[in-house]
TrEMBL record:
UniProt record similarity statement: Belongs to the pescadillo family.
One example GO MF annotation: ribonucleoprotein complex binding
PROSITE patterns: BRCT
Post-translational note: Sumoylated.
Keywords carried by this UniProt record: Chromosome, Nucleus, Ribosome biogenesis, rRNA processing, Ubl conjugation
SMART domains in UniProt: BRCT (SM00292)
Record's protein name: Pescadillo homolog
The organism of origin for this protein: Sus scrofa
Subunit and interaction comment: Component of the PeBoW complex, composed of BOP1, PES1 and WDR12. Within the PeBoW complex BOP1 interacts directly with PES1 and WDR12. The PeBoW complex also associates with the 66S pre-ribosome. Interacts with IRS1 and UBTF. May interact with MAP1B. Component of the PeBoW complex, composed of BOP1, PES1 and WDR12. The complex is held together by BOP1, which interacts with PES1 via its N-terminal domain and with WDR12 via a high-affinity interaction between the seven-bladed beta-propeller domains of the 2 proteins. The PeBoW complex associates with the 66S pre-ribosome. The PeBoW complex also associates with DDX27, PES1 interacts directly with DDX27. Interacts with IRS1 and UBTF. May interact with MAP1B.
Gene3D superfamilies reported in the protein's UniProt record: BRCT domain
Gene Ontology annotations for the cellular component aspect, listed alphabetically: chromosome; nucleoplasm; PeBoW complex; preribosome, large subunit precursor
Organism phylogeny: Eukaryota, Metazoa, Chordata, Craniata, Vertebrata
SUPFAM superfamilies the UniProt entry points to: BRCT domain
Domain BRCT intervals: 356-449
Residue ranges, compositional bias (Basic and acidic residues): 523-535, 562-573, 610-624
Length: 633
């Protein structure tokens, strides 16, 4: 991969001094060069190409210089650009190359951190020389004077306001949660892993204290969380707590550069969020919880690690600087009419539903068995006001034992382990996540140990008109409306099938009756037509029509009443108007209209295909149950 700037016709776009500024070399005499002053680092090359019009190649390592520039671009938030005419910009070549805008590269010219990079390069060279000469005193002196730099000014530069930082917090949280699960190997620095773990725990404690969690989804990639912080939705993903094996085809240096900036950003954000809730930063546990846990937890960790382990348990509340008086926020009511009143009423109902959702698990006590994911469940349960504990031999932070009689729910994932205790529900972990997404406590009968679990629906998907809606989602919507659809068992399904068969037979009888009545009506109309024809035949054919009508009285015949279907007529008029409008479209408008209609028809076909698959699946499950029921024991 090569490094260059986007081609422009102006010749004075990139200076040689700027190039040497990146490479850490002193400037030489010479003004602004042309486009040939671009630095192109060729993979496997012996060096860098020389500028246009000069015969002096640079004596630097190309990949080292490329990594330094890439690191600086990542920290400053400068990303590559894909040109519209890539072959033209690349001078006819189709080789893989990364393009940057020249104005973005010029923006890096006055960055103060570049001087720190130069100092660090000199430090590494001196340290390598001291190691080679075995000058250990010099090595110690150089390590004590190792150049350091901070990214605070870059954070303030990229995010002028706090809301801007919150809007860009998704990637920072995902990267920090990922690095916090890495093992302590040579791939990543131990200090970076520990820092990411501390920042992730601090953010989870803020979400618990602010009751900011909104949605949870368990996917193949990991666990997706959505929290609402100061009105901004933040979505991040955390990996499952499995043993991690570093892949060989991943460049951890790029990830470490991103993480270096993200840890600085997340540290600022955590400090500001803790200050908004009057919490101590760095976080501290409440004195009562700290005192109760000290006697039993000192045996698990050293004093230096005990505090972090207790915070990571997520079972105790944080200490506040000043305990605020809890006052319920009252919504101001103003006299309004019409649409404004309806909007205010909808907003008030939404706030009430949100407050109710925050207290979903309030008054409930959970106990986690050792086979369930402890951290994820503790984080979700505590975020909605519930109390949670586990076996004290499993992890630090257990607040009560399994024998506590006030436990309402015990989360298990292995059926038939122990004798059940009267007065508590034994449910699988999915019940907690589904209840959070449904904004209500779901019936526990579908989540008993050993029961086949219902599908875990994604809360991030909202069905639109024409989309396929699974039956479980319809049932969930009915529960949210306050209805109780219930869960049909096999016998009820068979009764329903028999009722449907009976309804089909009754429908066939009604169709026969209707067919008979139609035949009678048709026979009556045929007889009337024959009588009318007989009257015409009996009349003299040569007589003129007018005298005949004058000589005879008009005969009144029985007719049928034809009711006008106004709805059908309106639909016909609407379809006719639509057809005429399509005919009057321009060619471009008609092309766009056909594309829109093709997309709608494709969506309908996909929804029908999913409905057919679901129907076939339900029939297969039903037949399997019947076969199992009919099988002799």
């Amino acid at each position: 991969m090569e490094f260059s700037c986007k081609y422009k016709r102006e010749k004075s776009l990139f200076s040689l001094d700027l190039l040497r500024h990146f490479l850490g070399q002193p400037s030489q005499a010479g003004g602004v060069e042309g486009l040939g002053a671009l630095y192109r680092a060729h993979a496997g090359g012996s060096g860098a190409t020389c500028p246009l019009g000069t015969g002096r190649p640079f004596s630097v390592e190309p990949w080292a210089a490329w990594r330094r520039r890439r690191r600086l671009c990542i920290l400053k938030g400068i990303y590559p650009h894909e040109p519209k005419h890539k072959k033209k910009v690349n001078k006819g070549s189709t080789a893989a190359r990364t393009f940057y805008l020249i104005k973005d590269i010029k923006f890096l010219l006055h960055e103060p951190i570049v001087n720190k990079f130069r100092e660090y390069k000199v430090f590494v060279r001196k340290l390598r020389k001291a190691y080679g000469k075995s000058e250990w005193n010099t090595v110690e002196r150089l390590k004590d004077n190792k150049p350091n730099y901070k990214l605070d000014h870059i954070v303030k530069e990229r995010y002028p306001t706090f809301i801007d930082a919150l809007r860009d917090l998704d990637d920072a949280l995902s990267m920090c949660f990922l690095f916090s699960t890495f093992p302590r190997t040579g791939k990543c620095h131990v200090h970076t892993i520990q820092l990411c773990r501390r920042l992730a725990v601090e953010f989870m404690h803020y979400v618990i204290a602010a009751r900011a969690l909104r949605k949870v989804f368990l996917s193949i990639k990991g666990i997706y969380y959505q929290a609402e912080v100061l009105g901004q939705p933040i979505v991040w993903i955390t990996p499952y707590t499995f043993s991690h094996d570093h892949p060989t085809d991943v460049d951890y240096r790029v990830m470490a550069t991103f993480t270096e900036f993200y840890t600085t950003l997340l540290g600022f954000v955590n400090f500001r969020l803790y200050q908004s809730l009057n919490l101590h930063y760095p976080p501290k546990l409440e004195g009562q919880a700290h005192t109760e846990a000290k006697a039993s937890e000192d045996t698990y960790a050293l004093d230096s690690e005990s505090s972090m382990e207790k915070l990571a348990a997520l079972s105790a509340s944080l200490a506040r600087v000043v305990v605020p008086t809890e006052e319920e926020a009252e919504v101001d009511e103003f006299p309004a009419d019409g649409e404004m009143a309806a909007q205010e009423e909808d907003h008030r109902k939404e706030l009430e539903a949100q407050e109710k959702h925050k207290k979903l698990f309030e008054g409930l006590k959970f106990f986690l068995n050792r086979e369930v994911p402890r951290e994820a469940l503790a984080f979700v349960i505590r975020s909605f006001g519930g109390l949670v504990s586990w076996d004290k031999s499993l992890c630090i932070g257990a607040t009560y034992d399994v024998t506590d009689s006030s436990i309402t729910h015990q989360i298990v994932d292995r059926p038939g382990q122990q004798t059940p205790t009267i007065g508590r529900y034994y449910v699988q972990p999915q019940w907690v996540f589904d209840s959070v997404n449904a904004r209500l406590l779901l019936p526990v009968s579908d989540y008993f140990p050993g029961v086949q679990l219902p599908p875990h629906l994604s809360p991030f998907v909202s069905e639109k008109e024409g989309d396929y809606v699974p039956p479980e989602k319809l049932k969930l919507l009915a529960l949210q409306r306050g209805e109780h659809p219930g869960n049909l068992n096999e016998s009820e399904q068979e009764d329903e099938e028999e009722d449907n068969e009976g309804d089909d037979e009754e429908g066939e009888k009604e169709e026969d009756i209707e067919a008979g009545s139609e035949e009678e009506e048709e026979a009556r109309l045929t007889a009337l037509e024959e009588r009318r024809m007989e009257g015409r035949v009996q009349a003299p054919p040569t007589a003129p029509e007018e005298p005949r009508m004058e000589g005879k009285k008009p005969r009144v015949m029985a007719g049928t009443v034809k009711l006008e279907d106004r709805q059908r007529l309106a639909q016909e008029e609407e379809s006719e108007a639509k057809r005429l409008a399509i005919m009057m479209m321009k060619k471009r408008e008609k092309y766009l209209y056909n594309k829109i209609m093709f997309g709608k028809r494709r969506k309908i076909r996909e929804a029908n295909k999913l409905a057919e698959k679901r129907k076939a699946h339900d029939e297969a499950v039903r037949s399997e149950k019947k076969a199992k029921k009919a099988r002799p024991v």
